[in-house]
Structures are given as C-alpha cells and as structure tokens.
Amino acid sequence: MAKSNKPIVWGLFAVGGTVAAFCVPALILAHGLLVPLGVFGENALSYERVSAVIGFLPVKIVVLGVVILTLWHAAHRIRVTMHDFGIRKDDMVAMLCYGAAGLLTATALLGVMAV
Amino acid sequence: MSRKPFVRPVPATTWYMRNGRYLRYMAREVSSLFIGLYMAGLAMGLMRLAQGPDAWNAYLTALSSPLALVFHVLAFAFATYHATTWFNATPKAMRIRWGDGYVPGPTVVRAHYALWGLVSLVILVLVGVI
Amino acid sequence: METIQTDVAIVGAGGAGLRAAIALAEADPGLSITLLSKVYPMRSHTCAAEGGAAGVIKPDDSLDQHFSDTVGGGDWLCDQDAVELFINEAPRELTRLEHWGCPWSRETDGSVAVRPFGGMKIKRTWFAADKSGFHILHTLFQTSLKYPAIKRLDEVFTTDLIVVDGKVQGCCAIEMRTGQMIQVQAKAVILCSGGGGRMFPFTTNGAIKTGDGMAMAYRAGVPLKDMEFVQYHPTGLPSTGILLTEGCRGEGGVLRNKDGYRYLQDYGMGPESPLGEPVLKTMELGPRDRLSQAFWHEQQKGNTIQTQWGDCVYLDLRHLGEAKINERLPFVRDLAKSYSGVDMVTDMVPIRPVVHYMMGGIHTDITAATPLPGLFAAGECACVSINGANRLGSNSLTELLVFGRRAAESAVAYIKDSGVSVDGAAANREATAVEARIRALFDRPEGDETTAGLRQEMFDTMEGGAGIYRDEASLTATTAKLAELRQRWQTLSVRDKSAVFNTDVMQVLELGAMLDLAETVASSALERKESRGSHQRLDHTERDDTRYLKHSMASYRGETAPPAIDYLDVTITKSQPGVRDYSGAKS
Amino acid sequence: MSERTIELEILRYNPATDEAPWYQTYTVPCQEEWVVLDAINYVKDHLDSSLSYRWSCHMAVCGSCGMMINGEPMLSCKAFLRDFGRKIRVEPLSHFPIERDLVVVLDDFMEKLPRVKPYIVRDQEKPIEEGEYKQKPFELYEFKQYSMCINCMLCYAACPQYGLNSEFIGPAALALAHRYNKDSRDEGRDQREEITAAHDGIWECSFVGACSEVCPKAVDPAGAIQQMKLASTMDWYLERLGGVGARVKRSLSSRRTSK
C-alpha cells in the first residue's frame, strides 16, 4: 500500500496550528475588534505607520509567516471538517481548500512584497 | 448459516450530535473556518495596503462595519477555543525528555499558556502603538 | 458438521497454548497447527497473573537453590526430575520472552530486575511491574501473529476429545458464532486449557476457568493427578476475589490481624522481620499454603475483622510509600481503590484467602505426554508435577513456557516417530456421537433445575467441605453432595435453543465439567488421610510419608460413579522429604 | 449490606428471531458495591439465561466485557453502580456489527492487528545464550504505556472516524505499532510504516481524542498516533532531502536500537 502524501500538508498544518494558537486570538482582538472600535485611537493602523513598519524585511517575513502558515493550517483542517460534515468528495474538497490557500498565499506575498 | 450480524449505521452528516465529546471536537474543527476566513481577510488587507492609502482606508472602514464586528467576535471566540485545545493537546503529540521520563504534561501546557500570554501582549501593544 | 484436518490441535490459547503453538511453528514450518480457544487469546486467564515468573539469572542465585525451594515448597510431592528440568529450562525461556519484547522491569543498568517471592530463598522472580501475566500473554499472542502456520479458531468451545483405537485423533468443538459443531481431526492434541478454580465461590479465577480441558481428558480415560491440592492465595479482595499479587509481600507488605499484630510469627514463620526489610522465606515471604492456613487459625481465634463479605485480615503496605507502590504495584493499587475503596498508600487493605490455582491436573510425564497416545498437556490443566502439594508463586508462569514448548516438541516427535495417521471415518463416527450428545442437551425437558442453582450448591459444598481445612465428615458430605449434583445435572436443560453465541449451553457444559472435577477433588481429598501442603486435614494433621508420599490418581468411571482413586510413586532424585522450615532458622 | 434496585435496559438481538435489536428492561436487586457486570450476571443467572455477553476476569485486564453503558464505552466490570442512577442502559459496543445481544463481531480488529506487525522485528536475532537485551529505565518507559492495551475495543467504539470509515486501522492497533516502534529492541518501524503511514493508517485520525478519554488503561492511543504523524512527517521531508536526509534518518533510528 502506498504511503500517504498527507505529511506534506500535515507539517504545515501542525506548525500553522501552533502559530495560529499563539497569535490569532490577539490579532483578531486587536485588529478585528479593538482598532475598529476605536480603543487604540483614531489613528491606529494608519496607512503611513503600517506601511512603514511592514517596509522592514524582518517584519515582512514574520507577517508572511504568520499569515501563510495559519492559512495552510486552516485549509487542511477545513478539508477534514468537510469530511466530518459528511462531504465525501475528498479530492475535490482538498483541491478547493489547498487551492484557496495557495491563492491567498500569493495574495499575501504580492501585497507584502509590494509595500 | 445462522449468523446475521446486525450493522448499526452511523449517520454520516449528523454523527457528532450523539454526544458532547463529539460536539466539542466539531467546535474545535469549525474554528478553522473562522481562522481561515479571518486570515483570508488579512491577506486581502495586505493587498489593499500595497494598493495605496485609499484602498487601505476603505479596508479599515469595512472592518468597522457591524457585520465585520460580529464576525470578528465569533472568530475571536473560536480562535481562543482553538488555542486552548491546541495547547492542551500539545504534550500528547510532542514529548520532551526530562531525565528518565518526560516533562510532565501539565508543565508543558502551563508553559504554553504563559508564552501565549506574552505573545498576545506583544501583539496588542504593537498594534496599539502602530 | 465442518471437518478440519490438521497435524496438531492445541486446545487453549493462554500462555501455554500460545507457547506451544510458536514452538510447533518453529520446529517445522510445514506443520499445520490449529489453535482452538473458547475466548480470544488475549482474554485467556494468563492475563490476570500479576507477580512474576521465576528463573535463575542472577550471580547470587543457583539452580540448586531454586530446586530445593520448589521441592520443599511442594512438601516433597514434586517429581524431582521434572523440577530439575523445569529449573534448568526456566532462564532460557524467560530470556526468549525478553527477546520477543516482554517489557520486564529493569535494574538501572538495563538488566532484567528480579523481586522476592514467597517461599523463595533468593530473589529470582522476573516481573513486569504487577502485570507480569498480562505482558507475557500479550507478548506471546503478538509474537504468534508472526507465524502464518498457526491457524486460530477463536471463540470455539472444545467439548470432547476424539479417541480412535486408544489414540487421540482430534477434538470436537462448538463454534460459538454459528453454534455449529466442528471436528478437528489431528494427529496429536495438546491441552492447554487452564484450571478450574471456578468450582469454588471465592476465587481469583476468571469466569472462563471451568476446567473443561481437564474434564475432557478425564472422560477420555486419562487420570487426574493430585486433584486434592487446591491453592488458596492468601491475599484476595474479599468482595470479588480479585487477586492482590504476592509481589505486595515481596516488596515488603505485611499481614496484620484485627489488633494490628503480625500473626504469622505465631505459626512457625517468625521471628518477626523488621518493617520494610523483609527476610526471604520467612513471615510474609512464606509459602501460600502456610499463610492461608494461618489465616484460618486466626479466624478460629477470633482475631479477624468481620466485614460484610466475611472474615478478613489486613494487608499493610503503607510503609512502602507512594513512589514505590506506583512503580512496582500500580495495578493492584488501582484494583484495591476501585473495588474495595481503599488506597493502600494510606490505609490497610482488608484481604482474605481465595482459591487461586490447582496444583493437580491431567497426568503427564516429564515430556508433557499423557498416558493416552497422541494427547499432551501443559500449563495449569496439566500435572507434570513440579508443584507438588503447594505451588510457589511465580513458578506457574515459567511452567507455561517450559512445558508449553516441551509439549509441542513431544507432539512433533510423536507424529514423526509413530508415523501416526488419522482414521478419518472412525474419527467422524466419534464426532457424530459427540454431536448427538450435545444436541440431546437441547432436547432435555425443561425442569426446575437451573445452571445457577446447581452451581450455587456446588459452591456451597466445595467451600464448606473441601476448603483450606477438611476432615472425614466434611469431605464425605461433599462427595455425597457432588454425586447428587452430577445426577441432577443430567436433567438440567438448555433453555436457550438458538444457535448463535449460545452462552446458555456453554454454561451447562462448563458446569458439567466442574462437577466432574469437583468430585475428583473431594474424592482424592477424602482418600488422602494426611496433611500435606495445601491439603490440610483436621483429623489427620501430620504428613504421612510412609503411606502418602504418592500422587493420587483419579480415574473416570462413568457419568454416575465417583472416580477410582489410585496412587503413583513420587519421583525422588536428590532431596529426601524433610521439614519445611520458614522460620529463617537455617539457610 | 445495603441493597438497591436498578432498572437495567439491555439491547437484545437474536439473529434467528429478530429483524432488528430491541430493548428489554430487567429489574435487578443489587448490592451497593456491585459493578454493572454483576447486575448483568444476575440477569443471566436468575432472570433470563438466554442473554449473551462476554466476560471473564472481573478485574479490568482481560478486556472481554466492553459495552456501551449509558452511551459511553466502558468495561462493565469496572462500571460501578454507585456512579449511576436507577436506570442504566446497556448496549453492545458501537461501530461493530452485533452478533447477538451484547456480543459484537471483532473480526475486523483481529484482521488488522497482524498487519501492523505487533512483534519485535530484527534484521539479526540475538542468540539466547547471549542473554537479555539491556534496556535502560528510560528505554522501557518510552514504550511501556503503549504496551498496556488490553484490546478491549472501547477506543474503536469511541472513535468516530472508525465509525465513519471502518477501513481505518484504528487506535489500538496503531498504538501497538507505536509500542513496538518505540521499543529499543525493535528494528521494524520502516516495515510498519507501509501500513501505518498509508491512507487508512494514522492519517485517517483527526485527533478527536475520544479513544484516549475512554481507554481504561491510560494507553493514550491519540497521543501515540500524533507522535507517529510527527515522526512520519519528519521522515517524509528527510527522505526528500537526499543523502543528508537519509543520514539524519539513519542516525536517528540507530540511536534507538540496541545491538
């Protein structure tokens, strides 16, 4: 019987899951809730400041690392979750999940590198 | 042949309704949908940043819409749930040797929670300062 | 009826059966092996053994010492040639098990650790914490999966041997899942079917230990040897009979009566050893028969604790400390906590003697062969006899290995030397008769007798008349009662008429086997007018070597008659009967 | 001696007469300290001799008497009545075909177990004369927990992935594979990976963790499977690193094996 090729994505899933666990709750809290609610003031995440910070290469790498790893973590787990919900077309689900993760990876890469 | 084993079917789409353990598992798995959508939004945001100040400001405005806020409240809850389940399970998957045994699971879990607190604080401060 | 043809059939897939199967597969890969078991192999009762397996490996030990401990422990009723062979083979077998992956507990340098055990002058009991039997069984079972030649028939209840022209040519069995009869035609059969402790109400034995194999051999004409010797384990949980390993005492646990007094010193096992420093072969490290008998005397004196499950004494392990208990005795700690609500780290555990092991069994010679050509036996169902009148703890797990393998080798030699072939037509006739007998059970008219009712009466009479202490009156009453119960069994009907997994018919057959065996126990005990090892008579309190340095042999005389009791000389090679001394007075 | 009466609701199924399983309720007088198995034995002995179920040791080590008790897979010999109310529902283990009453068909597990080679595999056997393999306390500790499995099948009854896909090798068999992989005497991991790392092996597990929660012997199959995933993932990447990866892999495994 052929060995499964799941290790490729599972490695990303595991590392991404750890990164997501450490970073995502605080990120959502800060960037998705506190900033829009004005807790950090009117000028929080202003274009100038954000683009200046992301201009640094080390920051680019960290931000991309968090975003991309978390995306692949989510993509893999969504694939499994679809199976758990009774959707049994695993090949198609996998293609959609990983395809979306790939597209979003490219989007994030393009975006960050262009800043 | 007198045998006639009876097979009880497992409902493929609703099996997890059978008990609380499975429901908690599904909640953990569903966290990936929220985390994934959130990250998709963030990736888009980074693209908007590259497109210039107007695009970025429109993105920030969109973030304050009620719909976005509701989504982020939910996403925050699921992401936190993901984090706790993830940290609690870590010592099972990764065992760290310590003398003639392994670092006790609860110690590993507590260390993760401490680090999580620290990372979260850094993120909050950074976003607050920026 | 389905017919299976095989070279060797093994009945029972516990430690001995699995060891025999592996030995057969290794002896000749071309051999076809059929391993029948009424349960899946990993359910076999070997899994419940806790303490360990004895074998000489340490430099301070010697084969001679293991020999004299065993022979003295058996009150000189052991066949000494068999003991010698056993002791010589023991270390190799235990090492082989280590190579197969058995997780033996270790010393810090990585070598196998040994612990003290009752009646052993030197530490020589290999152990895997307090689940030694469990690990041995699973190691053997898992290792057996390597050999495709071993064809298992799991959950197949063997009912009878097929005997053609005075030779065993297979066996008949009920396939539980279909209810169909199977005949396994074989050139040789090895019985590894375990003991029958379930004929007593309070026992460490699992429900499956109903002595079916012993009864099968008995009905086929093989004498049962030394059946009066039934071992009580001194430390069982009172409510359930759950075993608390002798390792508890090996690690330093002590027995106390209701006043907290270590009473064993009053029964020739003193002087009292300091707490936490057990002295080998004295006090709590005395043999099981002596300890159980001491309990009985304490009970007579009113020094026991009355509990809702009867009289008890205390097993005290508190001084060992939590760390040692968790390392060496985690399983029994959990058992005592769950089933008796007592944490042995902080409290003393109420315990009482419970039936544990049958020294007697199917008569075999030193090669594991029975007098019936083609039939071999090993393990608790057999009596070779290395255990004599009282088995030392940790000898039986080793016995499974040594004699399981030996039975296999003897079976192979028998097949090759005798050039035996199976007479299929005659075997089929025998099997058809067996099938008719089983079918007839279903046709018995439904009367008032119930399996549970008869079983309870058997319990009562065995406990009352053939327990730790016996006398003429109690044994006469018991034999009479058992004769009556065997009669009444003839009218016991199977209420459940269905085919698939019919445990009702299984219980009827098991009860029949137990009643046959119980009668051999009581009759042999009645005839042995002396006290020796686990057989203690209140009316004949001394050992009598002139008349009874002999094996008793119980032979079958039909469905209604009691067994004929005969005697066979004990083989003595180098140790003349002496005094069993557990006072620590001399070496 | 305190007594109580319970209502035992038992799933019955006789293939000869029943189209489908049904519940039968028995009123059982019990002792306070009884386990559910004692109550079932009472039914068998005094109320209904046709009830079929498996049991033997009554001390949680033979693994025969696994059942669903109030929906939870448990050993009935270790399910104390004191932990339940007056009404107790007993069913055969989930995810297995019912042979009869509380007896389930175990063929599937018995067929899978040998496939993971649950025994010591070595290139070269050590002669008995050379004595035992040395095994340091840590080397024993590393696999001991996974050797405690009694094959009671509670984990399969708890595992939803096994329920959804019976091709899945499942928790107990995988934990046993892990037990031998982690044994310092063993050299068979690569052979076992052919099965364990294939589609129906560890990758069918989504780490629900139910197996470990119901395990009566604290084996933690879920943990074992995650560790196998981690090791298998490392292998996958190392195998694709060419010579360097192969060297790292070799040195990782040779460190473990006692010669």
Automatic annotation (TrEMBL), chain A:
InterPro entries: Fumarate_red_D, SQR/QFR_C/D
Superkingdom, taxonomy of origin: Bacteria
Keyword vocabulary terms for this entry: Cell membrane, Membrane, Transmembrane, Transmembrane helix
Pfam (any one): Fumarate_red_D
Sequence intervals crossing the membrane: 7-30, 50-72, 93-114
GO cellular component, one term: membrane
GO biological process: fumarate metabolic process
HAMAP family, alphabetized: Fumarate_red_D (MF_00709)
Name of this protein: Fumarate reductase subunit D
Native species: Roseospira visakhapatnamensis
Upper taxonomic lineage: Bacteria, Pseudomonadati, Pseudomonadota, Alphaproteobacteria, Rhodospirillales
From TrEMBL, chain B:
Transmembrane helix listed as a keyword: yes
GO cellular component: membrane
Top-rank lineage group of the source organism: Bacteria
Membrane-spanning parts: 25-47, 67-87, 108-129
Keyword Transmembrane: yes
Keywords: Cell membrane, Membrane, Transmembrane, Transmembrane helix
Pfam families noted in UniProt: Fumarate_red_C
Protein name in UniProt: Fumarate reductase subunit C
Native source organism of the sequence: Roseospira visakhapatnamensis
Lineage: Bacteria, Pseudomonadati, Pseudomonadota, Alphaproteobacteria, Rhodospirillales
UniProtKB/TrEMBL annotation, chain C:
A GO term for molecular function: succinate dehydrogenase (quinone) activity
Residues annotated as catalytic: R288
Principal location listed in the UniProt entry: membrane
Residue span of region Disordered: 526-546
Domain FAD-dependent oxidoreductase 2 FAD-binding: 7-397
Cofactor: FAD
EC supergroup of this enzyme: oxidoreductase
GO CC, any one term: plasma membrane
Subcellular location field: Cell inner membrane
EC numbers, comma separated: 1.3.5.1
UniProt keyword annotations, A-Z: Cell membrane, Electron transport, FAD, Flavoprotein, Membrane, Nucleotide-binding, Oxidoreductase, Transport
This protein's record includes keyword Flavoprotein: yes
Family to which this protein belongs: Belongs to the FAD-dependent oxidoreductase 2 family. FRD/SDH subfamily.
Subunit structure: Part of an enzyme complex containing four subunits: a flavoprotein (FrdA), an iron-sulfur protein (FrdB), and two hydrophobic anchor proteins (FrdC and FrdD).
Stated name of the protein: Fumarate reductase flavoprotein subunit
Organism encoding this protein: Roseospira visakhapatnamensis
From TrEMBL, chain D:
Catalysed transformations (reactions): a menaquinone + succinate = a menaquinol + fumarate
GO MF annotation: an example: electron transfer activity
Domain 2Fe-2S ferredoxin-type: 6-94
Pathway assigned to this chain's UniProt record: Carbohydrate metabolism; tricarboxylic acid cycle; fumarate from succinate (bacterial route): step 1/1
An example Gene Ontology biological process: tricarboxylic acid cycle
Top-level taxon of the source organism: Bacteria
Binding note for cofactor: Binds 1 [2Fe-2S] cluster. Binds 1 [4Fe-4S] cluster.
NCBIfam families: dhsB, PRK05950.1, PRK12385.1
Family stated for the protein in its record: Belongs to the succinate dehydrogenase/fumarate reductase iron-sulfur protein family.
Protein name: Fumarate reductase iron-sulfur subunit
